[in-house]
Write a structure and sequence with these properties.
The chain has about 300 residues and is α/β, with parallel strands linked by helices. The protein is built from twelve helices and eleven strands. It folds into two domains: about 130 residues, no CATH class; about 150 residues, Rossmann fold (3-Layer(aba) Sandwich), CATH 3.40.50. It starts with a strand and ends with a strand.
């Protein structure tokens, strides 16, 4: 049996689901289950969203299955942030092999599935999705009735040479993340805008952020007739920003899985995407080999 943990916000959940599909594909003889208990004791982001937005129903692991795979009984009562009881302590070799953010694809294929395995991570490397993007775009197609309220902005986006600009701040400003993620600076966005002006005749920049007040002032260097600050999509409607990013003809993304998916879900034909060289503080981002993607 393999149990994979799902956690964090929408973008990370989507990458985790792509990896989950790979596990089931490469191990058809093994019971593969999802551990969703993280959402029972975390208030971060908008909770588990794959079911609501894409109709994805995961086969959930029972508490006993989680315990068999991880050696820990999960606490499923909101407000409790720690496991109820530990059955064994993992040694460093086990942690390195099964709890890393980026498990090599070959290692995943050749897991010793005679043992129960518990996997946790984000799996954002393109090696997990690049060869299956057409099917993945179909899986992550937003419901038409849900996107109707975004139709006015979507029409505006589709009527011009639209380029999305994503500014991730929000939880990156939280003291618990201090020093872990790079807050992209103005020079990155200025260089990305300059590059997009060479790639599109008359680009219009649609700016998305979880800090709307900040970007209203921070992008004063961009002429008013060349920019639109997208507002209103907060809380349970935050996903609409991802949908609208996907409708743009080009994307300037942040060090964020949210805007990465905004770029990945769009029509790839003629699309240009600028992504930052830095993701985690002090660590370069993976070099993408997707057509039209350029690291800056």
């Amino acid at each position: 049996m393999i149990v994979q943990q799902f956690s964090s916000g929408l973008g990370n959940q989507m990458f985790q689901y792509v990896f989950f599909r790979l596990l089931k594909k490469h191990h058809p003889e093994v019971r593969v289950r999802a551990d969703l208990t993280w959402f029972a004791w975390h208030n971060a982001h908008q909770g588990y969203e794959l079911q609501k937005l894409f109709g994805i129903s995961l086969p959930e692991a029972t508490p006993w299955e989680i315990a068999l795979a991880s050696g820990q009984f999960p606490h499923t009562v909101r407000g409790y942030r720690y496991i109820n009881r530990g059955l064994r302590i993992f040694d460093q070799k086990y942690i390195d092999a099964h709890c890393a953010d980026e498990i090599p694809l070959q290692d995943m294929i050749f897991y010793d599935t005679r043992k129960n395995l518990y996997l946790t991570g984000y799996y954002i490397s393109e090696k997990y999705f690049k060869d299956d993007l057409d099917d993945i775009r179909k899986i992550f197609a937003f419901q038409k009735d849900e996107t109707a309220s975004s139709s006015v902005m979507a029409h505006h986006i589709e009527s011009v040479e639209s380029v999305s600009v994503h500014v991730r701040r929000g939880d990156y400003l939280d003291p618990i993340y201090e020093g872990k993620f790079d807050l992209l600076r103005e020079d990155y966005y200025k260089a990305a805008v300059m590059r997009m002006r060479k790639l599109y005749d008359k680009p219009h920049f649609f700016i998305f952020s979880d800090d709307k007040d900040f970007i209203k002032e921070a992008f004063g260097w961009l002429p008013a007739d060349e920019r639109t600050v997208v507002t209103g999509n907060t809380g349970s409607d935050s996903w609409r920003d991802m949908y609208l990013m996907s409708k743009c003809k080009g994307n300037i993304i942040a060090n964020s899985t949210f805007s990465t998916w905004g770029a990945l879900l769009g029509n790839p034909e003629g699309r240009h995407v600028i992504y930052p060289s830095a993701y985690i503080a002090g660590q370069d981002s993976e070099k993408k080999t997707i057509d039209g993607w350029e690291r800056l």
